[in-house]
Amino acid sequence: MKTKIQEIRNNSITNMTKKCFQIAAILLLSFTSTQAQDKKAKDLLNEVTTKIKSYDNIVIDFKYSLNNAKENINQDSKGNVTMKGNQYVLNFMGVTKIFDGQKTYTINPEDEEVTISKVNEKDDNAITPSKMLTFFNSGYKYNMDIVQNIKGRKIQYIKLVPTSGKDQRKEILLGIDVQTKHIYNLIETGKNGTKTTLTVNSFKTNQPLSKNQFTFVASKYPKYYINKLD
């Protein structure tokens, strides 16, 4: 039976994975929605898109913060994610998640367990780069927001607001470095007051990756329990 701490950690890892791919989604999408949008915001996002599309892979080191004043929750964690096409490796809160394009391998050293599961693209809770790449295609209005000077960097924020009343998110703020056209951070505010922030500490592209970068090698975990869900 999962402990409460394990539950919180697993939820944080799931939310963190979504944030990473929300960034990937914004980076790689062409914002061509027919909804009325702010032209300046659309132009800036398209500038980012054009630049990012030339990259073979993206490696991000990040800080993840979860805050809810009402519930007295303040949680900070660091991690990194490597993304290429429809594959990724995420290291966060001591857990490694590998997605090879078909299956997700969740490696938990604390429990000495590897959980293997197939990904169903039709599942609303499934997290894959290809699915997240369509995440912002519809259902959001966006416009230019504030500009901040952060450690000498000019950060332009774009606000995305869900159009569905059923969405539990109030808004998403995407911070873009005006000079580099790279993502600086993503701030998501829920209707319940919870705020999650992903801040990019390091944004690298076209890195030399191992040919087995996104391959799970079972022999590395001889003492681990292999839990196959499918």
Report on the structure:
This protein has 230 residues and is an alpha+beta fold. The chain has a 12-stranded mixed β-sheet with strand order 7-8-9-10-11-1-2-3-4-5-6-12, with helices on one face. It has a domain at 48-86 and 126-207: outer membrane lipoprotein receptor (LolB), chain A, CATH 2.50.20. The chain has helices at 4-28, 39-52, 129-132; strands at 58-68, 73-84, 87-92, 95-99, 103-108, 113-118, 140-150, 153-162, 169-177, 183-190, 195-205, 225-228. The protein has 3 helices and 12 strands; from the N terminus they run ααββββββαββββββ. Helices cover 19% and strands 43% of the residues. A hairpin with a 6-residue loop joins strand 8 (153-162) and strand 9 (169-177).
In short:
The chain is an alpha+beta fold and 230 residues long. It has helices at 4-28, 39-52, 129-132, and strands at 58-68, 73-84, 87-92, 95-99, 103-108, 113-118, 140-150, 153-162, 169-177, 183-190, 195-205, 225-228.
